[in-house]
């Protein structure tokens, strides 16, 4: 079966006054129909840029993006516009992504209007369906974004993202701008909607625990490259890349005994600038087990020990049982 999303050799460079920023460097992955894939990494890892390239907010510098069999990265504007109902994005901060001068019902209905979908007489019924789905009362429809709480606003942007029944949803840090107390309810909402509606989802976050909770598989990015792909349920036990292991060791766990038994791996320094990525393995400046070869050659992303696992590290041989 063809995947909902196939990304191959995706590269994105930005020209800036300081030079060329190599934000995304040869990234490949796919998302199956109805699958949630998490993309995790520090700020500056390129994860948001991958998301924006997937929905064509940024045209890629190289590589291809295929959604439901259509290579959208090769399409011209007119045809891309027609396909745009098939994929959509939920942004980090609903306060800035929602038009403050529009009512909630107009915001939610806007994709139908833009794409000329359905008769406008039917839009109110469809908006009401979506408000039900995201758990907002119908009376919210006549209100403006500033009259709502942050969590309600994010529910509005989710309703808007889903009204045209997309097959692929990219969610970029959908809970990071929200109060900690309501983050879990939005994560659960996205999980429930994905299960009920069956869309494929690329869930982007710097928060490993959130990604592990929501996603079926986790992609770990470091300085523009994917360094590991691993199933969420085996992430804690089977993470094989030293960077992923450091992220896992730093993530809070609910069981305090487990936390104590876990050796915390502290990384020194910040992620280097994508203006001048280090040669070889991009992680070698911070890697606690780096070897000479790591400074010279970039490691390939190769199968690891767990089923479906991929790891880019010279010290992790393909197929070795750890
Ligand atoms: Fe560390 Fe080398 Fe593996 Fe990179 S390739 S993660 S520097 S051991
Ligand atoms: Mg970001």
General description of the model:
32% of the residues lie in helices and 22% in strands. The strands form 2 sheets. It has an 8-stranded mixed sheet with strand order 6-7-8-3-9-10-12-11, with helices on both faces. A 4-stranded antiparallel sheet has the order 2-1-4-5, covered by helices on one side. It is globular. The chain starts with a strand and ends in an 11-residue tail after the last strand. The mean pLDDT is 91. The structure holds iron/sulfur cluster and magnesium ion (MG). Iron/sulfur cluster binds next to loops.
Helices and strands, with pairings:
Elements: E1 5-16, E2 19-31, E3 36-40, H1 47-54, E4 62-67, E5 70-71, H2 77-83, E6 87-90, H3 94-97, H4 104-114, H5 123-133, H6 150-162, E7 168-172, H7 180-197, E8 200-205, H8 208-214, E9 217-222, E10 225-231, H9 235-238, H10 242-250, H11 256-261, H12 292-296, E11 302-303, E12 310-311
Parallel strand pairs: 3-8, 3-9, 6-7, 7-8
Antiparallel strand pairs: 1-2, 1-4, 4-5, 9-10, 10-12, 11-12
Helix pairs in contact: 4-5, 4-6, 5-6, 6-7
Magnesium ion binds at residues 48, 173.
Overall mean pLDDT: 91
Task: Give the uncertain stretches in residue-range form.
Answer: none
Percentage beta strand: 15-25%
Helix content: 25-40%
Radius of gyration: 20 Å
* Number of H- or I-type helical stretches: 12
* CATH architecture term of the largest domain: 3-Layer(aba) Sandwich
Overall geometry:
globular
Bound molecules: iron/sulfur cluster, magnesium ion
